Amino acid sequence: MLEQTPRRFPLRGTIRLNRAGDIWHKPAFSAVAAIAVPDAALLATDRLDLALYTSAGALCALYGHARPYAARARTLAGVVLGMATGVGVALTASALTGSVALLVVVAALLAAAQKTLCDAFRTGPPGSIVLTFVSSTACFVPQRPADVPWHIGLVLACGAFAWLICMAPGLVRPHGPERIATARALEAAARLLRADAEAAPRARHSVLVFTGAARAELRRATGRRRAEALAGLEALLVRAESASAGRSDAHAEAELYDTWARDLRKGRALPGDVTGGVSPGVSPSGGPTALDRLRPGSPLLPVGVRVLAGGTLAGWAAQAVGIGHPYWAVVTAASVLQANSVLSWQRAVQRVLGNFLGLLLFTALLPVARTGALAMVLLSVAFQFGAEALIARSYALATVCVTPMSLLLGEFAGSHPAGRLVSDRWADTLVGAVIGLLACALVTDRRSADRVDAAVGRVTEARATALALLDAPHSAHEAGRARDRLATALVEMREAADAAAGEWRRRTLPHERVERAERDGHHTLAALVRSLATAAA
Q1: What is the pLDDT of residues 109-148, one digit of tens each?
Q2: What φ, ψ does residue 428 adopt, rounded to 5°?
């Protein structure tokens, strides 16, 4: 049965502050360094008009900081190539046509492709929005065909510089990302041990998410020496997973996990009683690939269609009302559109509020920025740092910094009337947010409930396999594979249920089946973890 009444779109909690990200300083300082050096060169040569292209490459330094260095190298290379491709398409379109309506379509197509591909390849924060901001802006920069290769070359050169900056810490702490991922799993386990009955289900899910993510990073280890160096981390993950089984000494165990997590983050030696206890159950598990996530029926495809429809309509609406920067409306619509309607509503509120405060800040600091090119560069770098420092705490607060930073980037090529600049940005924000939400209403994900049914079925099958395994003699290798399959199925089921619950129109969800499958699945998973912990002892 299709529910016709819309979901409730709450304001409560939309603006709340979250905990600061544990590695926020890494993308923040990396991006500042990657941007400051090219900006200094442009400032010295009086060519700040090229800042869009150098910044495009430098902003790639925001990606990949949670990944091991081998995987980070590949991710960053893909992001740099994706950025250069998006900018190249945008500049070519700008050089070939002056039609604003057509350029809006190009910007929206790029935004939809970037959103879909970034989600499919799981590039991680900040997702597609940085790529979309740069490529949408580039669509409306006056361009000559002969200059396009030169400008793309600047993007690639600064992207290569950003790649070097992000890879440099590997010379000092080659296993730092894996240790941090393991520390997160231990901290999640400590929170579960301290959780009350109401908070326990979410805390248990969090343990699965963080241990699964950490184990995925460890599996990317290549070479015998590297695998041996990380063996103790796998044993710590087994200990973290054991929190789901419950313990009589929960408080003391939670304190121990927190201590281990602090030691991991500070680069200290692993605990002596676990360094030799790698779980024999670890085995490579080929999860869904990027191509699998792009197959028909994927939840990524409706979001991509929403971005295309919302971005196009927002840009055309901005053009129709005479706004001078329609690409801002495209970017706003793309940033508003999230995995479901409720998340999109929350992002729209955050975006509007953040832009309003950011415009006030830009207006206040504009006289300072126009004292000289150096002041503009310093302010833009400071705003970039502020955005990264605040993004984990609140998207709205981060937008307060992003708004003046993006406006200053436009000022590098020449000054614009302040009143028109601010009014255009505010109007584009409202148009983009409203039409983005309209796109959510028009393009509904009608298969969201079907995905929940399928996810429940996968959990049931994985649990049945695990129970059969536990009832018969089995190896730690077999238990490890069963654990991985069941844990992955539980995470995917919870994600599918949460995503479907936020859709404003959908078939009634099987809440009781989900809760029962989740409860039984966690009980079986705890038994598997106890089996592995015994084997590793």
Answers
A1: 999 999 999 999 988 888 899 999 999 999 999 999 999 9
A2: -65, -40
Element (H, E) at 506: strand 506-507
Q: List Cα–Cα distances, 330 to 31, 90, 192, 313, 437, in angstroms.
A: 24, 14, 41, 8, 13
- pLDDT digits 0-9 by tens, 315-326: 999 988 887 788
498 Cβ neighbours under 8 A, 6+ residues apart: none
Joined tokens for residue 142: 């006056």
181, 207 Cβ separation under 8 angstroms: no
Helices (H) and strands (E) in the chain, counts: 21, 2
Distance CA 157, CA 55 (A): 11
Angle between helices 250-265 and 231-241 (to 10 degrees): 150
- Comparing CA positions, the residue from 304, 341, 319 lying closest to residue 432 is 319
Please state, in angstroms and rounded to a whole number, the distance separating the CA atoms of residues 23 and 72.
15
Q: What is the rounded CA–CA span in Å between residue 1 and residue 454?
A: 17
Helices (H), 443-510: 448-470, 476-501
| Helix residue ranges, H only, 168-223 | 176-194, 200-219
**Residue 36 to residues 32, 47, 133, 314, 340, Cα–Cα distance (Å):** 6, 14, 19, 33, 37
Write the pLDDT tens digit of every residue in 253-308: 888 898 999 989 988 887 765 644 444 344 444 456 777 778 877 788 888 888 99
**CA separation for the pair 347, 341 (Å, rounded):** 10
What DSSP state is assigned to residue 22? T
The one-letter code for the residue type at 257 is Y
User: Among 213-227, 366-380, 417-431, where is mean pLDDT lowest?
Assistant: 213-227
The per-residue pLDDT for 283 is 44
What's the confidence (pLDDT) of residue 278? 42
Which amino acid would we find at residue 96?
A: L
- What are the extents of the domains in the chain? 22-171+299-442, 176-265, 448-536
Q: 107 CB contacts (<8 Å, ≥6 apart)? A: 90, 135, 136, 139, 140, 311, 315, 327, 330
414-440 as b/e, with b when 16 or more CB fall inside 10 Å? eeeeeeebbebbbbbbbbbbbbbbbbb
Indicate the average pLDDT of the chain. Answer: 84
Is residue 420 within 8 A of residue 282, CB to CB? The reply is no
CB 64 within 8 A of CB 31: no
Kindly state the tokens that stand for 240. Answer: 């973290």
- Paired with 507 in beta bridges are 2
Question: What is d(CA 106, CA 97) in angstroms, rounded to the nearest whole number?
Answer: 11
Distance CA 339, CA 438 (A): 15
Contacts of 141-145 with C-beta under 8 Å, sequence gap 24+, read 141/52, 141/91, 141/94, 141/413, 142/94, 143/91, 143/92, 143/94, 143/95, 144/95, 145/92, 145/95, 145/96
- Please answer whether residues 28 and 389 qualify as being in contact, where contact means their C-beta atoms are separated by less than 8 angstroms: yes
Pinpoint the alpha helices (H) of 286-392.
290-293, 300-320, 326-336, 341-369, 373-390
